[in-house]
Specification:
The chain is α+β, with helices and mostly antiparallel strands and about 160 residues long. Helix content is about 20%, strand content about 40%. The protein has helices at about 1-15, 95-110, and strands spanning about 35-45, 45-55, 60-70, 75-80, 85-90, 120-125, 130, 135-145. The chain has an eight-stranded antiparallel β-sheet with strand order 5-4-3-2-1-8-7-6, covered by helices on one side.
Length: about 160
């Protein structure tokens, strides 16, 4: 009897030490916020470090600006509240087609609440995400969240704004 109790106790202790994976549906992002991100994009065996600034608006949609380390804008995209996508600025690294197909899809996976097979991401922690697609991998970490309404011009699609 004491051997069974000891085995049961060890099993319970081992199970208590295992953390449950974070829930994909609970994300720490306010409806109105500026989210600062750092990412490592791995494509064709090469790694690229990226910085991102995502403005979230409860009424105006999402505006994502992706930059390389020296400040050049690689992608600037607006997803309006109705789901329409407007590529404001692209680069040699990210073409408008790539931005619409992959950058917006990845942003919607993490920040838009998509929960289907087309959204291949893992939530490693409340601020750390990994997306693995056939052609690339993205390791994204949230480094800051500033709650509050963003400038309305950020979501009108007519201006190029710096983060």
């Amino acid at each position: 009897m004491s051997g069974r109790f000891f085995t049961l106790a060890l099993t319970l202790i081992a199970m208590a030490g295992q953390a449950a994976p974070p829930d994909k549906t609970s994300r720490p992002f306010p409806a109105d916020a500026m989210v600062t991100q750092r990412a490592i994009l791995t494509a064709h065996g090469r790694q690229f470090t990226l910085n991102g600034y995502l403005a979230l608006s409860a009424t105006g949609g999402k505006r994502l600006i992706v930059m390389e380390n020296f400040g050049a804008v690689l992608a600037d995209v607006l997803v309006k509240r109705d789901g329409t996508v407007q590529v404001i600025r692209s680069s040699r690294v990210f073409s408008p087609a790539w931005i619409q197909r992959y950058v917006v899809a990845d942003m919607q996976c993490i920040f838009g609440g998509m929960h289907d097979k087309a959204c291949p991401f893992r939530m490693l922690s409340a601020t750390h995400f990994a997306i693995e697609r056939r052609w690339y991998k993205l390791d994204l970490q949230i480094v800051g969240i500033k709650s509050g309404r963003q400038k309305p011009g950020m979501f009108d699609g007519t201006s190029k704004v710096a983060p």
